[in-house]
UniProtKB/TrEMBL annotation:
Source domain of life: Archaea
Protein's recorded name: Class I SAM-dependent methyltransferase
InterPro entries (UniProt xref): Methyltransf_25, SAM-dependent_MTases_sf
GO BP annotation list: methylation
Classification lineage: Archaea, Methanobacteriati, Methanobacteriota, Stenosarchaea group, Halobacteria
Domain Methyltransferase: 40-126
Keyword Transferase: yes
Chain intervals for the UniProt region annotation (Disordered): 1-23
Length: 201
């Protein structure tokens, strides 16, 4: 954990390293369809999803390994006058409660190995909103090395025990340029006959 902490603190101290400030687009689009209550933002960075959820009435836990990122996130929360429980730890070391969270968000964090624990932490009917970089033959400008990117359908396959409400893989614009991104929205429910949210846009 110490190596990751130092590496990410160094990244966040680099003026050229910039994270998106807006929440996951699909999170924003689906907000009215999501269950209310507690939320967890995994690898929160500077808090874009955590702040958005807190502003919309959620009790939010936000986890990140980087002190520097969380310092920025706290300042942003103070500026917006919202409360978030900022937790400095490695996600793999975080003690997740079973059935605890109504919404879990993950942005650009390769977490397939902790995904089973995250799914256990979803309350019945809870929703996970997850986006991550993809390996791609398209020329893209933003993202980590291939070993930290998912292959096509990796994220989808890892969540097939949930109800898939949305999944797509595409190139889109992020802070700093274009990126190949997988986006997943999945609910902790099962069965052949279920209710599905109507989206207004």
């Amino acid at each position: 954990m110490t190596d990751d902490r130092e590496r990410w603190n160094e990244k966040h101290g680099d003026d050229d390293f910039r994270l998106p400030e807006e929440p996951i687009p699909e999170l924003e689009r689906r907000l009215e369809t999501l269950p209310s209550g507690r939320a967890l933002d995994v690898a929160t960075g500077t808090g874009r999803n955590a702040l958005f959820l807190a502003e919309n009435g959620y009790e939010v836990d936000a986890v990140d390994v980087s002190d520097a990122a969380l310092e920025t996130a706290r300042r942003r929360a103070d500026d917006r006058d919202v409360d978030v429980n900022w937790i400095r730890t490695d996600v793999a070391a975080f003690d997740l409660e079973t059935d605890a969270y109504d919404v879990i968000t993950v942005s650009f964090f390769a977490a397939l190995e902790v995904l089973p624990d995250l799914k256990e932490a979803l309350a019945p009917g809870g929703v996970v909103v997850y986006e991550h970089h993809l390996r791609s033959s398209d020329p893209v400008e933003v993202g980590p090395s291939n070993r930290h990117r998912y292959r096509s359908n990796d994220l989808l396959r890892a969540c097939l025990d949930l109800t898939i409400l949305h999944y797509e893989e595409r190139v889109r614009s992020l802070t700093g340029g274009s990126a190949a991104v997988a986006t997943l929205v999945a609910r902790n429910s099962s069965g052949g006959s279920q209710s599905y949210p109507r989206l207004s846009r």
